[in-house]
Design brief:
Layout: H1 3-36, E1 40-47, E2 50-58, E3 63-68, E4 77-83, E5 87-94, E6 97-104, E7 109-116, E8 121-131
Antiparallel strand pairs: 1-2, 1-8, 2-3, 3-4, 4-5, 5-6, 6-7, 7-8
């Protein structure tokens, strides 16, 4: 190997750590930007003008978090949601049955239905959801 080729190779190798560091820093910044840019809709859902539920919808991760506005001391409940351009839907199990909920994204109408194991069902709502006034509470570990 000639002296010129050896010097060029050493120079190229000396730049690799800087390139690698620059590349890793770029990825880290992109990840931070995507985490900071998470789209979470905050909704206040009312019945006859009375606030009943606070709902937060994580559009990036397809999760819905719900808290009864009348009992804010109860734990938040988070569910996997199916989110489309027109609806947000989720389901969960209860003792004795299952429940499902949906929000029409065009009208803001929220319905919840309980289905018992005997085949009966009971609906609650409709609630009217509008842009929320309460930010999603921070997670406590």
């Amino acid at each position: 190997m000639s002296a010129a080729v050896g010097a060029a190779r050493r120079k190229s190798l000396s730049r690799r750590p800087a390139r690698t560091l620059s590349w890793l820093l770029g990825i880290l910044l992109a990840l931070l930007a995507s985490a900071a840019g998470a789209q979470i809709l905050s909704l206040d859902c009312t019945s006859n003008g009375e606030l009943m539920l606070n709902v937060w919808v994580d559009l990036d991760k397809s999760f819905v978090t719900v808290q009864g506005a009348k009992r804010p001391n109860l734990p938040l409940r988070t569910y996997v949601a199916r989110i489309t351009q027109t609806t947000i839907k989720w389901k969960w199990s209860n003792s004795g049955g299952t429940s499902s909920a949906s929000i029409d994204r065009r009208t803001g109408t929220f319905y919840e239905t309980y289905h018992d194991t005997g085949g009966g069902s009971e609906a609650s709502g409709p609630y009217q959801c509008t842009k929320g006034s309460v930010p999603l509470p921070a997670a406590k570990f």
